[in-house]
Amino acid sequence: MNKYYITNPNNIDRYINLDISGFIFGIKKFSSEFNNYLSLKDISLMCDKCKNNNKDIIIFLNRLYFEHEIDELKETIKELSKLDIIIGFTDDAVLNILDELGFKGEKLLISNHLGTNSYTLDFYLNKGVKNAYISTEITIDEINEINNHTGANIFIKGYGYLNMATSSRKLLTNYFKFINKNKDKNSYTFKDFVTSKDYKIVEEYNSNFYTGDIYSSLKYLDQLDNLSIILDNYMIDVEVFYKEVNNFINHNINSEGYTGFLDKKTVYKVEDYE
Amino acid sequence: MNRPELLAPAGDLERLKWAIDYGADAVYLGGKEFSLRSNAKNFSIDEIKEGVKYAHDRNKKVYVTVNILFHEDDINGLINYLKKLEDAKVDAIISSDLFILDLIKKENINLEVHLSTQKSSLNSEAVKFYLNSGVKRVVLARECSLSDMKSIKDKTNADMEVFIHGAMCMGYSGRCTLSNYFTNRDSNRGACAQICRWVFDLYDGDNKISDETKFSFAPKDQQLLLYIKELMEIGVNSFKIEGRMKSIYYLATILSVYRKVIDGILDGTYKYDPLDEIILRRCANRESLPQYVKEFPGVNEQYYIGREEKTNQDFLGVVLGYDEENKEIIFEERNYFSVGDKINIFGPGNRSIFLDVKYIKNEEGSLVENANHPREILRIPCDAKVNVNDLIRVDFIN
């Protein structure tokens, strides 16, 4: 039986009575890739609301942090650690800070592209990290193998744009400066000449690259079991998202959406290149 | 001030030897398995053993990259491979997947683990976590500034390795899978197709933004020549040069410059020489800049159109021997030059000779006007003795 987690909906009341396990929020400064970010005070209020409705709250600290940000990060984590929440982290600095604070709550490794085997997840499990959000660049078979071999609870992306890369460079700002034009927004699309496919690039704290198509694992839901599935509304229309959440919850497998690497293995040995 | 290690890439056994001869204190290399740069020749276990012997005989070190991000099936054979590396007496492995720390402990394999830059270590708290987990050295993310490095060193006293020269990724290392999405080639398992060097059209909705200047995100190379002293004062333990696929000429040139600078700082004789920058720049055919060390890279640190990747024919030949009786250099030609050209012969230990080419003799002893057949064995006159494996290049200095 799968569990579902929804990222920061614009109207939580619309989702709170659905058959989902919880919500994922981003916090100002220390999270990225959310439509909006909460303050510590907002998160505290949200905690009360979710707990009253028996929903988990996961806070995503899903950035890498520079040395000059560490003191403020520590203060933020100190406050977060007082709340009844699951803390997700990308940067191992967060894990070290939580350990030093003696945090007893649950932790979630947000591995981005790096969570590709059960052994790594078990390394973190031995450090007290019971949950792991794994890579989107692996196949269904690999997901299930990892899930069967690790003791950690596995989170996968179920729906949303896929992050392809993250750069600390201001790639849009730099480009617009070079061509001497005004950059009046933070999100653009770029087209590959070879495939004519569109992709997205968004500049916020970092420059993030995304697939042009919205990914959905709905088609393969029958083959994905005993997982926590994240449905991510970043940059997605409110109504489209709500409909898809219901499709997942109701097991309404009628979608032919973009399935990423679920059914396509990447290659890396020269003899495997086409 | 401690003597930092100058760490060079070695794409194969030949380049390992050149790197060591030209001043590297240590080299890093990839085996046939489990290593990023799947297109490099890479080393068999026997070659690793030979390389380790060559290095250890000269009191140098060898690190082996075991730095792919493992998928579930990739683990097969890993324990056996790590045991072979232990048997080969390599000085450390460079890994990014942390489970290797548990694995070598469980299997009682005596290997030191250095944490690869693929892990993007940017701060002291992450570094503390890695040290507590058993990592012996951390290769910092290229995005670290000098002040970040100093703070990390002060707070952790970690053994820190820092990239000082070479190509760099557009994204955080390990956090770019554009290659996977565009070509199905797995960037984190050594098959990166370098999508960051492609060009694209940029759109705002249906409105095309890019015109003749296509959208691109390729970074220029990194070059920290002017910051070596500061890095040494911070206490950085190892200065790393990028480029396991690069040529012997590239290796010898880059190493010669940095070796001279490091040694000069240590013995108090260092004086800034603008020629060093010229030599580094010409060698790579790409622009190189300090990138992140002082401030975040901006528009000038990236390529758009008109990148200055000019190839040059600076590398003229490899010295095979010196005929003391006739006072002639015997060399293997690499690029065209003629009688009357000015050339520079350089070798390990910062030796350098400048010459006007008075004549060129071919293998039959006949005089020729031009050296124009790469790999041909030729002779030119030189009063000063030169050594085997000295290199000949265009004199772009005088």
In short:
The complex is a heterodimer of chains A (274) and B (398). With 274 residues, chain A is α/β, with parallel strands linked by helices.
**Total strand segments of chain A:** 13
Overall average pLDDT of chain B: 94
Q: Extract low-pLDDT stretches of chain B.
A: none
Oligomer: heterodimer
Helical stretch tally of chain A: 8
Q: CATH topology of the largest domain in chain A, what is it called?
A: TIM Barrel
- Share in helix of chain B: 25-40%
What do these coordinates show?
The complex is a heterodimer of chains A (274) and B (398). Chain A is an alpha/beta fold and 274 residues long. Chain A has two domains: 3-161 and 214-272, Alpha-Beta Barrel (TIM Barrel); 164-213, no CATH class. Chain A contains eight helices and 13 strands. Chain A has an eight-stranded parallel barrel with strand order 1-2-3-4-5-6-7-13, surrounded by five helices. A four-stranded antiparallel beta sheet of chain A has the order 8-11-10-9, covered by helices on one side. In chain A, strand 10 (198-203) and strand 11 form a beta hairpin. In chain A, helix 3 crosses helix 4. Chain A is globular. Chain A starts with a strand and ends in a 25-residue tail after the last helix. In chain B, helix 9 (248-267) packs antiparallel against helix 10. Chain B has helices at residues 13-21, 45-57, 78-87, 99-106, 124-133, 146-156, 178-183, 228-234, 248-267, 274-284, and strands spanning 5-9, 26-30, 61-65, 92-95, 113-115, 137-139, 160-166, 201-204, 207-208, 218-219, 221-223, 238-241, 288-289, 302-303, 315-323, 328-333, 337-338, 342-347, 351-356, 360-361, 367-368, 370-371, 377-381, 391-394. An eight-stranded parallel beta barrel of chain B has the order 1-2-3-4-5-6-7-12, surrounded by four helices. A six-stranded antiparallel beta sheet of chain B has the order 19-18-24-15-16-23. A two-stranded antiparallel sheet of chain B has the order 8-9. Chain B is 26% helix and 24% strand. Chain B has two domains: 5-303, Aldolase class I (TIM Barrel, Alpha-Beta Barrel); 315-394, Elongation Factor Tu (Ef-tu), domain 3 (Beta Barrel), CATH 2.40.30.10. In chain B, a hairpin with a 5-residue loop joins strand 20 and strand 21 (367-368). Chain B is α/β, with parallel strands linked by helices. Chain B contains ten helices and 24 strands. Chain B starts with a strand and ends with a strand. Chains A and B meet through helix 3, helix 4, helix 5, helix 6 and strand 8 of A and helix 4, helix 5, helix 6, helix 7 and strand 8 of B.
